[in-house]
């Protein structure tokens, strides 16, 4: 395909040419344009986002292990 969106052999238009100005520009993140309240609100909207059962099991196992290691210090 050529740069204007046509086929090089039959010269039919295959795709509309992309204009560079339609591509959104990325702005630099600074303290002035960053809204932490909006970001925190977006995270709080996920009410059904819970930790999976295997993560909770891992945390319990870690607490038991570390508790036992503390007991071993004093033995």
Q: Your description of this structure?
A:
With 75 residues, the protein is mostly helical. It has a domain at 50-75. It has helices at residues 36-44, 53-73. The chain is elongated and about 85 Å long. The model has no long low-confidence stretch (mean pLDDT 79).
Provide a brief overview of the structure.
This protein is an all-alpha fold. Helices cover 40% and strands 0% of the residues.
List keywords for this structure.
mainly alpha, 75 residues
Structural class: mainly alpha
- Average predicted confidence as pLDDT: 79
What kind of oligomer do you see?
Answer: single chain
Strand content: under 5%
Number of helices: 2
Distance between the termini: 77 Å
The gross shape turns out to be: elongated
Q: What's the alpha carbon Rg, rounded to whole Å?
A: 28 Å
Keywords: Membrane, Transmembrane, Transmembrane helix
Transmembrane segments: 53-71
Give a topology summary.
Elements: H1 36-44, H2 53-73
């Amino acid at each position: 395909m050529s740069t204007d969106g046509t086929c090089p052999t039959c010269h039919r238009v295959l795709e509309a040419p992309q204009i560079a100005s339609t591509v959104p520009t990325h702005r630099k993140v600074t303290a002035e344009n960053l809204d932490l309240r909006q970001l925190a609100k977006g995270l709080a909207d996920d009410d059904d986002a819970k930790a999976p059962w295997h993560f909770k099991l891992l945390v319990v196992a870690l607490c038991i292990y570390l508790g036992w290691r503390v007991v071993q210090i004093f033995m």
